[in-house]
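Researcher: Let's do a round of design. I'm pasting the structure tokens now; please hold your answer until I've finished.
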């Protein structure tokens, strides 16, 4: 619900600032792609690095 309110607020803010509708949808698309990248690629990679660091510390 909070993300929906944030999206509505951002769209309203962009209209108030005079930003076009194509730029709004482009921004939302880019923000979604960044979220997908962080959620599905970056977080598991960081988890692997953390587990590897713990194993290295335990073996050492």
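Researcher: That's everything. Go ahead.
Model: Designed sequence:
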């Amino acid at each position: 619900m909070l993300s929906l309110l944030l999206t509505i607020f951002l769209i309203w803010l962009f209209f108030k600032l005079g930003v076009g509708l194509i730029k709004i949808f482009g921004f939302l698309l880019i923000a979604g792609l960044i979220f997908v990248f962080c959620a599905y690629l970056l977080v598991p990679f960081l988890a692997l690095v953390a587990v590897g660091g713990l194993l290295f510390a335990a073996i050492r």
